[in-house]
Amino acid sequence: MTSQTLENYGLDIANIGVKCKVLEHEGSLKAIVGLDFGPFNVKGFRISKSKYTGDSDIKSADGTNLWIVPPSYKDGGGKFHPTFFMPDKAMWEELKKHIISEYENTCTKMLEKRFAE
Asked: How many structural domains does the chain have?
């Protein structure tokens, strides 16, 4: 499936709504994310701090390596399985960049609000 195919369904990565719940604690989990595709929502994406650099080398504005984990479930053996999957790797990379951009915007707005008070 390509971006052209997504457009046939009225979906465009830039128009996918991203709702971030930023977590302000010292752990590696930075945010819980929900995506609004218009006719449906997918919740449960996680943004975590990573000590590794991956294929896409996603970094926050402060240079922290970030890892986006799609919603998943844990089987009886303790292995996690994703419940959201995009077979087109280029499209998944584009979506991850969109998520990180919205995460950064949310963090900036939080800081502006905090210092405005």
From this structure: 1
> Is 60 in a helix, a strand, or coil?
coil
Structure confidence by residue, pLDDT tens digits, 12-33: 888 999 999 999 888 889 999 9
Sign of CA dihedral 49, 50, 55, 60: positive
Supply the range of the domain harboring residue 68: 3-116
Core vs surface per residue 60-85: b (16+ CB within 10 A) or e = eeeeeebbbbbeeeeeeeeeeeeeee
> What digits encode the pLDDT tens for the residues 46-68?
999 887 766 556 777 777 788 99
The CATH number covering residue 77 comes to 3.30.1120.40
